[in-house]
Amino acid sequence: MTDTQDSLAALADDRALLDRTGTAERVAEILRSRVAEGHFPPGTQLSEKAISERLGVSRNTLREAFRLLTHERLLEHALNRGVFVRRLTVDDLHDIYRVRRLVECATLRGLGAPPYDLDGLKDAVALGERAAKEERWRELGTANIRFHEHLVALGGSPRTDELMRRILAELRLAFHVMADPRRFHEPYLPRNGEILQSLVAGDAPHAERLLARYLDDSRSQVADAYERQIG
Predict the structure, then answer these.
(1) Pick from 28, 61, 112, 148: CA 20 to 30 A from residue 69's CA?
(2) Is the dihedral of CA 182, 185, 187, 190 positive or negative?
(3) Whole-number Å distance between alpha carbons of 186 and 130
(4) Does 201 have pLDDT greater than 50?
Protein backbone atom coordinates (compact mmCIF):
# COMPACT_ATOMS: atom_id res chain seq x y z
CA MET A 1 0.00 0.00 0.00
CA THR A 2 1.37 3.44 -0.93
CA ASP A 3 1.68 6.38 1.47
CA THR A 4 -1.27 8.07 -0.22
CA GLN A 5 -3.38 4.93 0.14
CA ASP A 6 -2.42 4.74 3.83
CA SER A 7 -3.49 8.37 4.29
CA LEU A 8 -6.79 7.74 2.53
CA ALA A 9 -7.42 4.65 4.63
CA ALA A 10 -6.80 6.69 7.78
CA LEU A 11 -9.65 9.01 6.81
CA ALA A 12 -12.06 6.22 7.69
CA ASP A 13 -11.12 6.84 11.34
CA ASP A 14 -12.25 10.45 10.94
CA ARG A 15 -15.70 9.42 9.76
CA ALA A 16 -16.84 9.15 13.37
CA LEU A 17 -16.07 12.85 13.84
CA LEU A 18 -18.76 13.80 11.36
CA ASP A 19 -22.40 14.07 12.23
CA ARG A 20 -24.97 12.54 9.93
CA THR A 21 -25.22 15.62 7.77
CA GLY A 22 -21.43 15.91 7.41
CA THR A 23 -21.02 19.63 6.79
CA ALA A 24 -18.47 20.89 4.30
CA GLU A 25 -16.79 22.97 7.03
CA ARG A 26 -16.23 19.87 9.18
CA VAL A 27 -14.87 17.90 6.21
CA ALA A 28 -12.55 20.82 5.42
CA GLU A 29 -11.37 20.82 9.04
CA ILE A 30 -10.53 17.11 8.87
CA LEU A 31 -8.63 17.46 5.59
CA ARG A 32 -6.84 20.58 6.86
CA SER A 33 -5.68 18.65 9.92
CA ARG A 34 -4.45 15.79 7.75
CA VAL A 35 -2.45 18.21 5.62
CA ALA A 36 -1.07 19.89 8.77
CA GLU A 37 0.03 16.50 10.09
CA GLY A 38 1.94 15.79 6.87
CA HIS A 39 -0.25 12.98 5.53
CA PHE A 40 -0.80 14.54 2.10
CA PRO A 41 2.39 16.01 0.59
CA PRO A 42 2.38 18.80 -2.02
CA GLY A 43 1.38 17.55 -5.45
CA THR A 44 -0.83 14.74 -4.10
CA GLN A 45 -4.00 14.30 -6.10
CA LEU A 46 -7.05 13.97 -3.84
CA SER A 47 -9.50 11.40 -5.12
CA GLU A 48 -13.07 12.65 -4.84
CA LYS A 49 -14.42 9.10 -4.95
CA ALA A 50 -12.04 7.64 -2.37
CA ILE A 51 -12.34 10.45 0.16
CA SER A 52 -16.14 10.75 -0.07
CA GLU A 53 -16.48 7.00 0.47
CA ARG A 54 -14.12 6.90 3.45
CA LEU A 55 -15.71 9.88 5.15
CA GLY A 56 -19.23 8.84 4.22
CA VAL A 57 -20.17 12.19 2.74
CA SER A 58 -21.67 13.19 -0.58
CA ARG A 59 -19.48 14.36 -3.41
CA ASN A 60 -21.24 17.72 -3.33
CA THR A 61 -20.23 18.17 0.32
CA LEU A 62 -16.66 17.15 -0.48
CA ARG A 63 -16.50 19.54 -3.44
CA GLU A 64 -17.55 22.39 -1.16
CA ALA A 65 -14.82 21.37 1.31
CA PHE A 66 -12.31 21.35 -1.55
CA ARG A 67 -13.51 24.83 -2.51
CA LEU A 68 -12.97 26.10 1.03
CA LEU A 69 -9.44 24.66 1.19
CA THR A 70 -8.63 26.04 -2.26
CA HIS A 71 -9.61 29.47 -0.95
CA GLU A 72 -7.19 28.86 1.95
CA ARG A 73 -4.44 28.05 -0.59
CA LEU A 74 -4.00 24.49 0.64
CA LEU A 75 -5.44 22.91 -2.50
CA GLU A 76 -5.59 23.83 -6.17
CA HIS A 77 -7.87 22.73 -8.97
CA ALA A 78 -6.23 21.77 -12.26
CA LEU A 79 -8.64 21.98 -15.18
CA ASN A 80 -9.61 18.52 -16.46
CA ARG A 81 -7.17 16.88 -14.03
CA GLY A 82 -8.65 17.19 -10.56
CA VAL A 83 -7.76 18.59 -7.14
CA PHE A 84 -4.20 18.58 -5.83
CA VAL A 85 -2.41 19.57 -2.64
CA ARG A 86 -0.75 22.86 -3.49
CA ARG A 87 2.99 23.40 -3.97
CA LEU A 88 4.13 26.62 -2.31
CA THR A 89 6.33 29.21 -3.95
CA VAL A 90 9.24 31.05 -2.31
CA ASP A 91 7.04 34.14 -2.13
CA ASP A 92 4.37 32.10 -0.33
CA LEU A 93 6.97 30.96 2.17
CA HIS A 94 8.22 34.44 2.99
CA ASP A 95 4.66 35.69 3.39
CA ILE A 96 3.76 32.84 5.74
CA TYR A 97 6.69 33.68 8.00
CA ARG A 98 5.82 37.37 7.84
CA VAL A 99 2.34 36.57 9.15
CA ARG A 100 3.74 34.20 11.78
CA ARG A 101 6.08 36.83 13.14
CA LEU A 102 3.33 39.44 13.24
CA VAL A 103 0.88 37.18 15.04
CA GLU A 104 3.07 35.03 17.28
CA CYS A 105 5.37 37.77 18.54
CA ALA A 106 2.41 40.10 19.08
CA THR A 107 0.71 37.40 21.14
CA LEU A 108 3.64 37.21 23.53
CA ARG A 109 4.00 40.99 23.58
CA GLY A 110 0.34 41.35 24.54
CA LEU A 111 0.32 38.90 27.43
CA GLY A 112 -0.74 40.30 30.75
CA ALA A 113 0.79 39.51 34.09
CA PRO A 114 1.80 35.90 34.80
CA PRO A 115 1.05 33.16 35.53
CA TYR A 116 -0.09 31.91 32.12
CA ASP A 117 -2.05 28.79 31.17
CA LEU A 118 0.82 26.78 29.70
CA ASP A 119 -0.63 23.26 29.76
CA GLY A 120 -0.99 23.12 25.97
CA LEU A 121 2.61 24.23 25.43
CA LYS A 122 3.86 21.69 27.97
CA ASP A 123 1.90 18.91 26.27
CA ALA A 124 3.31 19.89 22.86
CA VAL A 125 6.89 19.84 24.18
CA ALA A 126 6.30 16.45 25.81
CA LEU A 127 4.79 15.12 22.57
CA GLY A 128 7.84 16.33 20.66
CA GLU A 129 10.22 14.73 23.14
CA ARG A 130 8.45 11.37 22.80
CA ALA A 131 8.46 11.61 19.01
CA ALA A 132 12.20 12.41 18.96
CA LYS A 133 13.00 9.58 21.34
CA GLU A 134 11.13 7.16 19.09
CA GLU A 135 12.63 8.75 15.94
CA ARG A 136 9.23 9.66 14.52
CA TRP A 137 10.31 12.80 12.71
CA ARG A 138 7.04 13.63 10.95
CA GLU A 139 5.29 13.48 14.33
CA LEU A 140 7.99 15.76 15.75
CA GLY A 141 7.14 18.28 13.04
CA THR A 142 3.48 18.00 14.03
CA ALA A 143 4.39 18.55 17.69
CA ASN A 144 6.31 21.70 16.73
CA ILE A 145 3.25 22.99 14.87
CA ARG A 146 1.04 22.21 17.87
CA PHE A 147 3.46 24.19 20.08
CA HIS A 148 2.93 27.29 17.98
CA GLU A 149 -0.84 26.79 17.88
CA HIS A 150 -0.92 26.68 21.68
CA LEU A 151 1.40 29.67 21.90
CA VAL A 152 -1.00 31.80 19.86
CA ALA A 153 -3.92 30.43 21.91
CA LEU A 154 -2.43 32.24 24.93
CA GLY A 155 -3.84 35.41 23.37
CA GLY A 156 -7.41 34.18 23.92
CA SER A 157 -8.64 35.13 20.42
CA PRO A 158 -10.68 32.51 18.52
CA ARG A 159 -10.17 34.47 15.28
CA THR A 160 -6.39 34.46 15.67
CA ASP A 161 -6.48 30.76 16.57
CA GLU A 162 -8.36 30.04 13.33
CA LEU A 163 -5.91 32.13 11.31
CA MET A 164 -2.93 30.26 12.77
CA ARG A 165 -4.45 26.84 12.12
CA ARG A 166 -4.70 27.79 8.45
CA ILE A 167 -1.25 29.38 8.27
CA LEU A 168 0.43 26.44 10.00
CA ALA A 169 -1.35 23.91 7.78
CA GLU A 170 -0.01 25.83 4.78
CA LEU A 171 3.44 25.91 6.37
CA ARG A 172 3.44 22.13 6.64
CA LEU A 173 3.45 22.01 2.84
CA ALA A 174 6.80 23.81 2.92
CA PHE A 175 8.36 21.30 5.32
CA HIS A 176 8.24 18.59 2.66
CA VAL A 177 11.17 20.20 0.83
CA MET A 178 13.48 19.44 3.76
CA ALA A 179 15.61 16.48 2.68
CA ASP A 180 16.39 15.47 6.27
CA PRO A 181 13.35 15.97 8.55
CA ARG A 182 15.33 15.03 11.65
CA ARG A 183 18.06 17.57 10.97
CA PHE A 184 15.43 20.26 10.41
CA HIS A 185 12.93 19.56 13.20
CA GLU A 186 15.07 18.23 16.06
CA PRO A 187 17.04 21.43 16.87
CA TYR A 188 13.81 23.35 17.43
CA LEU A 189 12.63 21.00 20.18
CA PRO A 190 14.96 22.44 22.87
CA ARG A 191 14.18 25.93 21.59
CA ASN A 192 10.50 25.24 22.24
CA GLY A 193 11.54 24.26 25.75
CA GLU A 194 13.48 27.50 26.23
CA ILE A 195 10.47 29.59 25.18
CA LEU A 196 8.27 27.57 27.52
CA GLN A 197 10.64 28.02 30.47
CA SER A 198 10.75 31.77 29.89
CA LEU A 199 6.95 31.84 30.09
CA VAL A 200 6.96 29.62 33.18
CA ALA A 201 9.28 32.21 34.75
CA GLY A 202 6.85 34.95 33.71
CA ASP A 203 9.36 36.57 31.33
CA ALA A 204 7.25 37.09 28.18
CA PRO A 205 9.65 39.71 26.69
CA HIS A 206 12.51 37.18 26.76
CA ALA A 207 10.23 34.52 25.26
CA GLU A 208 9.38 36.94 22.45
CA ARG A 209 13.06 37.57 21.69
CA LEU A 210 13.71 33.81 21.60
CA LEU A 211 10.72 33.33 19.31
CA ALA A 212 11.78 36.08 16.89
CA ARG A 213 15.20 34.46 16.40
CA TYR A 214 13.55 31.04 16.13
CA LEU A 215 11.25 32.20 13.33
CA ASP A 216 14.09 33.95 11.47
CA ASP A 217 16.24 30.81 11.59
CA SER A 218 13.39 28.55 10.49
CA ARG A 219 12.47 30.85 7.59
CA SER A 220 16.09 30.98 6.40
CA GLN A 221 16.43 27.19 6.50
CA VAL A 222 13.26 26.49 4.56
CA ALA A 223 13.89 29.32 2.08
CA ASP A 224 17.40 28.00 1.38
CA ALA A 225 15.98 24.53 0.74
CA TYR A 226 13.38 25.99 -1.63
CA GLU A 227 15.96 27.98 -3.55
CA ARG A 228 18.20 24.91 -3.93
CA GLN A 229 15.25 22.89 -5.17
CA ILE A 230 14.21 25.52 -7.68
CA GLY A 231 17.75 26.28 -8.74
Answers:
(1) 148
(2) negative
(3) 12
(4) yes
